[in-house]
Amino acid sequence: MRMEPTFGLMKSARLPQETQKASVAGNSLVPLREPGRDLVSTEPPRRDMPAVEPATDVRSRGGFVNVRKMSPRQMADLAIKLHGQGVLSYEEYSMLAYQPEMDPRYDDTIGALTGEEADPDRPRDFLKDWEDRLTFERRYGAGNSGEVRRTEKVLAVLHRFDRPLFLTT
């Protein structure tokens, strides 16, 4: 057995073979592990993960996103992707990503006032919603020009998704 100093204290360091001999199954507080073997799972991978919805999996459709038929969940996912790529600032991202229907208390608050239940998976026309929001901001929020500019930027980004893509060869 060799002795090694550790932080001013003497500590005995055993070789791996000595450690395995000293700890018998049932006596050890720490289960024995083989280096590298504990990282490899012997169980088959789990297949019960939910499948990605076709509308949210952008790669399967060649990058096409339809903002006129998108659910609030999908819009929140799109907003985080746009913010992560630097297309939207944090303020613009937070405006686009906040979807009231995804709040668990929606039915008790906004839903109680409007008479509608939350349905965050129902597709909506977000382009029309943001155009209406911009009209409202311009009419009643003239004192808050920063909010109007952020709404215009979000709407401009959404308009880019609404344009048809023509490829020429």
Please describe what this structure looks like.
The protein is mainly α and 169 residues long. The chain has a domain at 58-161. The chain has six helices and two strands, in the order ββαααααα. The chain has helices at 16-22, 72-84, 90-97, 110-114, 126-140, 145-162; strands spanning 2-6, 9-13. The chain has a two-stranded antiparallel ribbon. Strand 1 (2-6) and strand 2 form a beta hairpin. It is globular, with a radius of gyration of 28 Å. It starts with a strand and ends in a 7-residue tail after the last helix. The model is unreliable at 49-62 (pLDDT under 50).
Topology:
Layout: E1 2-6, E2 9-13, H1 16-22, H2 72-84, H3 90-97, H4 110-114, H5 126-140, H6 145-162
Helix pairs in contact: 2-3, 3-6, 5-6
Concise account of the structure shown:
With 169 residues, the chain is mainly α. It has 6 helices and 2 strands.
Features:
169 residues; two-stranded antiparallel ribbon; 6 helices; single chain; 39% helix; mainly alpha; globular
